[in-house]
Q: What sequence folds into this?
């Protein structure tokens, strides 16, 4: 059991780094499309990666903030911003972009479900826990689009995105409620978001409009 | 006296629901105009209704947030967002919109004056209390317009809006200062906002520009 | 030594008023360009002047907020907003604007370095202190541009701006670390930002893009 937990914890950390990199990358790309300089590229990447979690922590009054405890993420995104400008000139995107979509789906799952879990630990009622999860998952992207002067993609995009986060948060709460281990509930919720998002992309599933 | 207080408290609750519905409706309508899907419609409606109060509570460091204590409002707006999409297709707006303007004026009064009252209870100086009242009243709409990628209507609109909130907050503080009952001060402030707003609409009153 | 400290403290206060006025002025001007009314002009000026510091305080969970402790600044900006509308009609800008650029550089230095200093007092790690300094210096302008529906100037502008803030914050931390007096470290950091910004404007220095 201890081995499983260590495995789970290492896996979560790997997913976390992957999720942060994926979210930051979408910020990098959008900032570059808007012809921003290195300052803008860093800021937009940072806010895309940590904006959702920071907003959640402000709403729940949790401190220290995630990125205050993990300075290394600030340095990572700083390095990404410096490297992105020369790299993005020469890279062909087709491969990178389709990879980003899947890593982003993992990040969405991880951020949403851990956001719900933190809200639950803070004693929030369930509906609020789900909202906090969805906010953690999607508000980085919302803030990215607001800074880039666009209507947020997640409110326009046909292919299910916030809906996957929403469903995954409920799956986590349901698993947690029926007394499965915390690790299993987390894994179930994250997997639900990921699978649902991948299906939505493959089959072009959209909300009715 | 007790009867008056119960009557006042019930009246305030009815006004609160009406104000939330009015503010959320303006969010629903603007989100639909921007062709958002159900996720966007819900989020914009929610932020329009609770954005001002949430910003005030972040600034004053008050917890729990209003909508965390009242899960039922989240569910109400969720239902409104789901129903809005089919309804808004078939509805003729002329009647609904002119109704919304008046209910919105009530919501503006209620949110502004209670915002000022909460700031006063937190020991803020009077100028800050008025600012908190105006923020509570207008920032939901400001955030709605930022998300919808518009310059906030309240900063552009000719017909007095924030000014009504501003005056009403001072009226509340003046009544509260002269030792009238809390209920009377609240009612006076809310009425001031409402009446001033209705007059501004009827006679097309604007700030000099 | 006491005389030096009093002199320093008075100087800092004068710089603070100058910085607030400079930042608020840039808000006034942009709001007027967008044809906002007095409400918009006041709000945008206020957010430009205090948005960065307020965001820093929300992130660090510091209360009371700067402008809550200094009501006189609210009244100052209120007066500026009322006067700006008739004044901005008749004023020729050439002189005023070039003055504002230099006062703004001072404000940027002051806000950045004091922001870093406050974060250091809150026990933040150094990378976070620098980020808090830069946020304090530039986020007022970022929020101004978001409300005015523009991509933030500081992310687009060729001439070094955030970079000056960034370098000055590190200079302050370095001086503070080598045990120079707090006053000297502050002065060194602020001077660094100011001089670097002036050089950037004069010689049109930009980040490589």
A:
């Amino acid at each position: 059991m201890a081995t499983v937990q260590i495995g789970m914890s290492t896996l979560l950390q790997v997913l976390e780094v992957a999720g942060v990199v994926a979210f930051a990358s979408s910020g990098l790309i959008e900032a570059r499309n808007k012809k921003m300089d290195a300052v803008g590229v860093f800021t937009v990447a940072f806010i895309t990666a940590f904006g959702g979690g920071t907003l959640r922590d402000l709403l729940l009054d949790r401190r220290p903030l995630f990125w205050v405890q993990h300075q290394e993420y600030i340095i990572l995104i700083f390095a990404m911003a410096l490297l992105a400008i020369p790299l993005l000139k020469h890279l062909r995107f087709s491969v990178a972009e389709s990879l980003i979509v899947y890593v982003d789906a993992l990040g969405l799952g991880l951020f949403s479900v851990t956001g719900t879990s933190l809200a639950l630990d803070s004693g929030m009622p369930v509906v609020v826990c789900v909202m906090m999860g969805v906010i953690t998952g999607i508000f980085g992207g919302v803030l990215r689009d607001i800074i880039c002067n666009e209507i947020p993609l997640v409110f326009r995009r046909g292919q299910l995105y916030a809906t996957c986060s929403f469903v995954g948060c409920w799956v986590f709460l349901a698993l947690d409620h029926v007394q499965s281990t915390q690790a299993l509930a987390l894994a179930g919720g994250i997997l639900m978001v990921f699978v649902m998002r991948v299906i939505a992309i493959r089959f072009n599933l959209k909300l009715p409009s």
Notes: The mean pLDDT of chain B is 89.
